[in-house]
Amino acid sequence: MEDDLDLVLRYFESKESAATNPAAGSDRFATLSTDEIQGKLDAAIPPNTRRKELWAVRIFDQWFEQRHNRILHGDTTGLLVLKERHEWNACDWNYLLKMFILEVRKVDGTKYNATTLRDIFSMMQHYLQYTLKKELNLWKDAACRDARMALDAAMKEATREGLVPGTNASSPIPATLEEEWWQKGRLATTSPKLLLFTLVFYLGKQFALRGGTELHGLRYSCEIQLQHEDGQELLVYCENRATKTTNAGIKRRFVPLKTVKASHTADHDRCLPCIYKLYVDRRPENCTVQNLFLAWMRSDASIQQGRWYQNAPVGRHSLDGIVRELTAPLTGVTERYTNQSLRKTCASTLHRAGFAREDIARVTGHSSTAIERYIQFDVQDHVKVSHALQSGGQSSSLSIDTEPERSVEAMEQSNVVTANPAKKMRLNINGNTNTVEIVFE
Fold first, then answer.
1. Nearest 10 degrees: CA dihedral of 189, 194, 197, 198?
2. Which residue ranges does the record assign to the ZMYM2-like/QRICH1 C-terminal domain (predicted)?
3. Alpha-helix residue ranges (DSSP H) falling in 127-268
4. What CATH homologous superfamily does 175-382 map to?
């Protein structure tokens, strides 16, 4: 009882103190205007999602206006809606979206493919939820069943008509192309630009990094550090919260951050820790820029004086185009290679090495089944599948000359995966027991 009385007395004393001294504690909390609050709410939505939503809503507005104008010209097939948009209920949206999805066309009058139709529908759901603040779920609510059926029908019709979306997906980088880059001097450590390109290449491949935004966000001696464990020097990458999949929002608050470690290899030129140390040694003294990647010097005189990099960061778009620039001067390259290819190369290489998908996801940072899109067959994988099928599932042997992987392979936590020298590999495939025996000779 006495404790409760003390609490009450302290409460009124604090109220009296605040009344006599209004300025006390006034700097503790921020005071935001309505526009500032709305700006923070808008910032929670990714820019790409916002752009796609505006694009979908613009198409819907154009369709709705065309439909409405038909009534004004006496066309009985027009659409007359007397209510304002914010007054539309679930039945109104169900009816309008059903017609919209079935009638929507490109500017040239042709149909959209199935993927684009689904994207438009998804962005209309986003528009309803976040812009109009409506408690309406187009994907689940029974009142919107007709709109979902219309989408399903339109997607199936587009697929039957051969309207397949074009692919801009990047491909994993084969070891032969990586070797060609080294042979032709596209990857090297002999100049500021080439050293930075080589470091970005192997950081992306080793740590499964994403595009220019993630690379631009790397800070010196922060996410990537040299550490010593059990007598070994390792280059350690610790993911921060500023990435796409670990943004620390409500949905991804407890997504574990990945930690990947790279060890030294016998090939000094292609050893990631060695490349990193060489780059760090070339950074200017008393550098005030926190970014890991600095703009390279273009003056021969500066380079000869030992000044390789400026006290300024490399732009995000420049970092995002490094793999494309590596590929540009080469002839006969039919696949599309971007910085995303490094991430796919990491996943595909680990898959061929026999790692489980859960372990690969720990290296790449995937928190869903999206890892499947990054694991791709190469020519040797198709050869093995073909041989197994042609042998009728019986035990057989297939000899494959494997090229040496000259760079450090990915590893997770304390498990270190290093490159193997060139060996003869024999695969004993037994279709009856679903086993593959790998024998190095």
1. -20
2. 177-326
3. 145-160, 175-183, 192-207, 212-216
4. Intergrase catalytic core (1.10.443.10)
Q: What is the dihedral of CA 385, 390, 396, 397, to 10 degrees?
A: -60
415: phi then psi, degrees, rounded to nearest 5 = -85, 120
Q: Which pair of structure tokens corresponds to residue 337?
A: 């290679």
Ramachandran angles phi, psi of 296, nearest 5°? -85, 150
pTM of the entire structure? 0.68
Instruction: Place 404 in a pLDDT band, splitting at 50, 70 and 90.
Output: very low
How many whole angstroms separate alpha carbon 410 and alpha carbon 425? 21
Please report the sign of the dihedral spanned by the C-alpha atoms of residue 204, residue 208, residue 210, residue 213.
Answer: negative
The model's confidence at residue 8, banded by pLDDT at 50, 70 and 90, is low
Q: Are 144 and 137 a contacting pair, CB within 8 Å?
A: yes
To the nearest 10°, report the CA torsion of 164, 166, 168, 170.
50
Residue 33, C-beta contacts closer than 8 angstroms, at least 6 positions apart? none
In the chain, where are the structural domains located?
47-161, 175-382
**CA–CA separation, 205 vs 349, rounded Å?**
10
CA distance 56 to 117: 10
Residue 299 contacts residue 318 (beta carbons within 8 Å): no
Report the side by side order of strands in the sheet with 396-401: 396-401, 424-430, 435-440
- Please determine, for residue 137, whether its predicted confidence score (pLDDT) is greater than 60: yes
Integer-rounded Cα Rg, in Å, for the chain is 29
Question: Which of these, 408, 399, 275, 311, lies nearest to 353 by C-alpha position?
Answer: 408
DSSP-assigned beta bridge partners for residue 435: 430
Q: Which residues of 252-278 are buried (b: 16+ CB within 10 A; e: fewer)?
A: eeebeebebbbbbbeeeebbbbbbbee
